[in-house]
Write a structure and sequence with these properties.
alpha+beta, Glutaredoxin, Glutathione S-transferase Yfyf (Class Pi), Chain A, domain 2, 2 domains, 4-stranded mixed beta sheet
């Protein structure tokens, strides 16, 4: 299967690209932007009218939303063994974690980086940002507690959830009043372990 990925540096499309590298399937990067005042490619907007990335296109289909794309790719390429099988006892934890990353952790980042999406007025935006910064600490603490002493998010089993967590860790910016990664030692440990994978080095340098 051949893939095309609408892609912008510093976005969730980087995590999907890491997974494509892990899969080893052919893929093409289609450059786009996240800047509010810059146009997006028409095909990207046809698939995702929000104008966000990642957007994945393949031979006979297309989709958006990072967590959904990761689940789809893992299920399409079971041979890479980066997600538990549907009948595995670990499947529920895998799905729960990906959705929590997408709906809670990423939303906290959005509140800080894109407060206009949540605020009624420009004057309200600083308050939204402060809440996002606090929410980052809250959500990452939940993740850190969930990991505990396990080697990976799913225990001894490295998965696409660890790739997703690494991606999120790269978005932390102390200059923006984000919590330090070191505040979450279990998250930090998994991020460091994931950072040495060849796929991550290709994408993140």
């Amino acid at each position: 299967m051949n893939y095309k990925l609408y892609y912008a540096e510093g976005t969730a499309s980087m995590g999907v690209r890491v997974l494509l590298e892990e899969i080893g399937a052919p893929y093409e990067l289609l450059s786009t932007t996240t800047l509010r005042d810059m146009p997006r490619p028409p095909e990207q907007l046809r698939i995702n009218p929000n104008g966000w990335v990642p957007v994945l296109v393949w031979d006979d289909g297309a989709m958006y939303e990072c967590a959904a794309i990761i689940i789809f790719l893992c299920d399409q390429h079971r041979e890479i063994n980066l997600a538990p099988a549907p009948n595995s006892p670990l499947r529920s934890l895998f799905l729960q974690t990906l959705v929590y990353f997408s709906s809670s952790v990423q939303t906290a980042f959005q509140q800080d980086y894109h407060p206009y999406r949540f605020a009624d007025t420009v004057e309200d935006e600083p308050g939204i940002q402060r809440r996002g910064q606090r929410r980052l600490a809250e959500t990452l603490q939940v993740v850190d507690n969930q990991i505990g002493e396990k080697k990976w998010i799913l225990g001894e089993y490295f998965s696409a959830a660890d790739i997703y967590l690494y991606m999120l860790s790269t978005w932390l910016e102390p200059s923006r009043e984000h919590p330090a990664l070191s505040n979450f030692p279990n998250v930090q440990r998994i991020a460091q372990q994931t950072s040495v994978r060849p796929s991550v080095k290709i994408v993140y340098g």
